Structures are given as C-alpha cells and as structure tokens.
Amino acid sequence: MKRNVAAKYSALRMTPNRILPWVYLGVMTYTYLVGELSHFLLGIVSRPMSQELHYGDLACLPNPEAATQSDSCREIYNETQCITFLEEDDGSTDSSSNTTTCIWNYSGLGLEYQVLAGPAFVAVFTTSGVLIGAIADRFNRKVVVTICCGVLTLATGMTGAAMNYWQLVILRMLMGAGESSFTPVCSSMISDLFPESIRALALGIFNWGIYLGYGLSYAVGNFVTAADIGGLGWRWSYIITGIGGVVATLLLLLVVREPPRGAQVSEPGGDKREVEKETNFTEGSRITGETVGVSSEVLVDESTKSSLKDVVKSLFKPPVVCLAFAACLRHTAGFSWAYNTQLYFLTYYPDFNLGLWVTGCSIIGGSLGVAVGGFVSDRLVKRLGLRARLYVLAGSQFVATPFAAGVLFFPPPGAFFSLLAAYIFAEMWFGVLFAVLLELVSGSVQSTALAVFLFVMNNVGGNLPVVVDPLTDLVSYRGALMIMYPGGYLASSVVFLLTSFLL
Fold first, then answer.
1. Which of 440, 212, 175 is nearest to 320 (CA)?
2. How many beta carbons lie within 10 A of that of residue 164, not counting itself?
3. What is the pTM assigned to this prediction?
4. Tens digits of per-residue pLDDT, 398-408?
5. CB 435 within 8 A of CB 188
C-alpha cells in the first residue's frame, strides 16, 4: 500500500501541474520584494525627504556643493560654527574659496524619523496582521493577499505626493496594513503547496523577497533620487516602487490560485504525506470553491475555521514562547541595522559613495543565506528531527555576530566584505524559523497563529530600534548600533539554543 502511494506521489510530481507551486511561489516572492522595497525605502531617502518636508533633527552636514565631503562637520554642534566653517581652517584648501565646507540642515535622523521607520509602520503592521491572518483562515487566502497588495501599492505611490510629515505617518500606516498579510498568509499557502522535505527551502525562497527588496531599496533610493527626474528627486523612488506594486497585484489576481487547505498533513507518526484528495490544483481549487468567478472565491470549507482556543493553545506551548523571544531579539538586531545603514555611512563616511555596495551585499548574502539555511535544515531534520532546525538558527546567528561587529569596526570598503559574510550567516534564520513554527502549530490555525507570532515579533523588533536615539546620547551612534546589531545576534543565538531543549 505504501509503495502504491509513493508511486502515485512520484507520478504526480511529473505532471505539468507540479510546476504550478513553483510559479505561485515566484509570484509571492516578487510580491514580498515589492513590499520590502516600499518598507525600507524610507531609510535611504530620509535625508532629502526631511530637508524638503522639515522633520527630525537639524545637524551640521557636509556641503554637497563643496569639493570634498568633510568628516569634520559631524563634530560641530553649533549652527553658527557650522555655516562659517571652512576646510581652510585645517589648512587643506585655498583661503580665497568662499564655499563653506558644512551646512546646517535636516539630517534625516531623530525621533520623528525613528517613529516613521518603526512605530508608525509596525503598530499597524502587527495589529492588521492578526486580523488579516484570522480572516485568511476563514476565506480565500489569494483574495486576501491581493487586496492587501493593492493597499500597499496605493500608499506607496501616494507617498511620492506627500506634502508634510503627518501625511507620511498616515501613509506609512497604510503600508504596514498592506504588507501585514504577506508573511502569515503566503507562508500558510506555501505550507499547503510543498511537503516537509522541501518546505524550509520553499519558505527560504519566499523570503528572498526580503533581501531583494531591501537591497534594491538602496539602488532605487540612491540612483533614482540622484537622477532628480522632473525635479521630483526622492518622490520618483516611491512612484517607481508603486508601479512595481501594480504589477504584483495583477500577478496575484490573474496567476495565483488558492491551494487545497491541508494538502500537506501530519500522520500519527509525525511524518508528512500529501493528502490523497485532488492534488491537481486546477481541480483542487474546487475544495475552496475557487472558480473563474471572483464571487465564489471567498467560499471555504467550514472545517478550516479556527477558534481562539486553538490559537491560544498553539501559541502558548513553551517552545513557541521561547522561539518568539529569540525571534524578537533577532528581529531587533536586523531592524536596528536596516533602519540606520544609509545614515550610519552618511554620518561616519560621507565621502564614500555607497552605490551598489549595500544592494549587492543584501541580495547576494541574504538570498544565499536564506537558501542555504533552508537546504541545510531540510537535510538535518531527516536525521535529527525538528531540533536540528533550532541548531541551525543558533549556530548561524553565533557565527554572524563577529562579522556584524566588523561592519561597524572597519571603514569601507572593508565594512562591506564583513557585511556580506554577516548576511550569509545571519539571514539563514527566517525561512527556518517559520518552518519550525509551522511544525509546532495546528494546520487549521496557521495563518492566525503566524500573524499573532509576527505581531509579537514585529512589535518588539520593529519598535525597539527607537532606543538607538537615546543610546546614541550615551555611547555614540556607532556604540548604540554595536549594542543593538551584533549584540542582538548573539543574544538571539543563546535563546534559539535554549529553545531546542524544550522540544
């Protein structure tokens, strides 16, 4: 009997419809890319945005019209001294020059920026994620994520037309609401599209969207802003990203189909098998009422409905609680660096052109890391069980810690070689994390459980980087990032290891 089932499964793998999960995965990955590009673009264009819309801290900055960009400007804290400072004071320029080395202007940093980057986005992102996750457990997930992508696209495009700070706050909140569905809903769909043997790899590929989007935000934010198309500067960065969102919304609407819920389920022994119902996704869509008509797509089998009791029971297991704590620490480290990367190099190395350095490090290092993490954990889980995935999480963050410290210790370009290595190891975590979580929670409440998990993880990880600002007053900007970035990696490594003992 088992041999017949295996033969049937093998035959199904050879049919054309076995390609569809990978097509759907590609569309969802692109959607995530657009979401992360929209999310992180703020950190790259914050300085020109703040100078036009007048928010955040005023500081002494290198004069862009000066022949060279001086490091001395950041050491001046008085407006009068700043606007009268000439590099000739150091004996390095002609005394006949009337061009000041520094100017007094908005730096893009400060509490107002940190609020935009963190709480304004995260508060709505996490709250909406829980509500949307619950909705997705009851209705068609493809429709839910398509609507959310449309909201994200609208907010991103309108940011390019913002005229004051409070408009930015509202639009950031809408971005958070739109992107909040991507991880919980798409991860649940991926869980139904791929068996355990390749699930972490599939989730890793989906999470390439993070690194592709984050990396591209530097290329779009720097080069498009510098091109100053039509004199709109940074605004075109958001307009172009919004156009990418339109494409993502159309692909979700026209290409992706809702997979049968519970297509990959656990047998009593803990092994995974495919449900022997309709694996053909054209026919299988009937299980959720999906047809060509949109009105019927919102129907769903009553058996998939989740209850609050089931969600609470799944999330309050000791391993899940400990896993959430570790994820909060790791997410804080990642966001602390992501929100401050551009501004860190502008502060300490203003004469260095980031160009494609961060883009390349993020895309190559992040994508390689997440794929390797999924592949390695998928191989090890066959021998060591679920605990192996926790070993991968703990080990990867521990190895990444010294490389993250090197990013803040070495000047560029050496900092970027260290950053590449840090990404390769540190970014092994995300796909593996959700592979563990999907194993620990009930299939009928996966979207809701993942949304609640993300609510906790993103509220801590997305908001805690705000303390970079007060820490800077105590130990310097570099010192604050040293505590929050490599320090966060190391702390999460310890807690991931402790979680493995609770399984």
1. 440
2. 10
3. 0.69
4. 999 999 999 99
5. no
